[in-house]
Amino acid sequence: MGRNNDRNIKKHNDKLHKAQDKVKQSEIARKEQLKLIMKKFNESKVSDK
């Protein structure tokens, strides 16, 4: 039985894609948090004037 059979390749690709999706989701969540922080910062900056 070879190491590079279809089942093993599929299993590896699924694991890889899952990891890539996790990274992508964490980047999106981080950007959303940054937007909220900037929004709050800008609001407080305006109210301080």
Commentary on this structure:
With 49 residues, the chain is mostly helical. It contains 1 helix and no strands. The mean pLDDT is 91. Residues 16-27 have a biased composition (Basic and acidic residues).
Q: Could you give the distance between the termini?
A: 73 Å
- The radius of gyration is 21 Å
Structural class: mainly alpha
The global form is rod-shaped
Beta fraction of the residues? under 5%
Q: Low-confidence stretches at least 5 residues in length (pLDDT < 50)?
A: none
Report the average pLDDT across residues.
91
- Largest sheet geometry: none
For the record, the count of structural domains works out to 1
How many alpha or pi helices?
A: 1
The count of strands amounts to 0
Helix content: over 70%
Q: Helix and strand succession?
A: H
